[in-house]
Amino acid sequence: MADSQATQLNTTIRKENSHVFDVLSEKGKNIFFPKLGILAQAAQAKGKAINATIGEAIADNGKSMYLEGFDALISVESENVFPYTPSYGKADLRAQWKDFIYKKNPSLQNHAISVPIATNGLTHAISMAAYLFVDPNDSVILSDLYWENYDLIFKNACGGSITTFSLFNDNAFNVQAFEQALVQNKSNKIIVLLNFPNNPSGYTPTITEIDAIQHCILTQAEAGKNIVVLIDDAYFGLVYEQNIFTESIFTKLANLHERVLAVKIDGPTKEDYVWGFRVGFITYGIKNGTAALYEALEAKTAGAIRGNISNISNMSQSLLMKIYKDTAYESYKKRTYTTLYARYNTLKKAFQEIEPNTYFKPLPYNSGYFMCIQLHDGIEGEKVRQQLLQVYSTGVIVFGNIIRIAFSAVPEHLIYNLVNNIVAACADVKQ
Fold it and tell me: pTM of the full predicted structure?
């Protein structure tokens, strides 16, 4: 039997939008953020002369106890490092990230979205979204080129399944295959995951293709299907070509239809180059979404996080806020983007100057960290990878007959060497 606090959240969600309640998993329906018990009693004791409620060691000065040796290592104020933070995330960082979403996605205009919930990186955010929306009998629709962690999250952890569609058709996003995957799903609940720029291909759809994707989803919603769209924006902002959609597809879905719940999963990991900070966010958007609906979804998300890892790093969140307040923040980002853009252009030039048809063809790419090449029949990907490692001191990732190249990790002056090594290894293996 569901806890009364979960029941109250469910009642609110049903009242505000029953379609959102219908797409929650059983775990999602049962989860809640506890506002009674220990948390409530600790909140009531805050500021009292004696507070013996909180599960932290407190020094005589009322601040968190810590080892003095950290003083020489950390310049951040102790209260922004050592204490627990809320399971929702630090309020100032959540507000800042929401402001960023509007700033980076002007098409959202004034459409109401939730306040982002902070997670322990994007992998954790996707896992928490799966917790809330994926049941063992559910299938998640995604492209056939996808990040292997999706298997661990949706299949191994949640017991669901994955349905793939072919990402490309004639060097463009395969709208027809995407539409087919939606139509062939006979459930009243459809779960889609969209990842642009895509890992591993490094592809972001054109403006026209994004409109077509939106239309496919809208058609299913108008046909009576409830749809959750998980939007993995890990590489958001790293677009290198013209006529590519530069905003998140979240902007096209967050106000699309009352049956379409858009779940934006993003964070500073790649956007701000802080892989080890482990900070991500989950943000919700739906047509006519109310404050009450969003607050209930935020509470369920925070409850899932509390029951999973309790809360995320205080120091990581505090350091991010410091850099976001720095007047030079935008110039810092511009310099790092310029470096990646130069590597992308050099890689593109290198492939144009060789004859790719001999051993492989590059798949479409225009953004992100990666690009892929598809090996021709008769050339075994794993043999090429091993030859690259053993003879050419070069590492790549292989998926069957596809090689993923992380140009983000290769200095510009080594890009031509990388491409020449791949060609040479292919030639060796083909002999």
Answer: 0.94
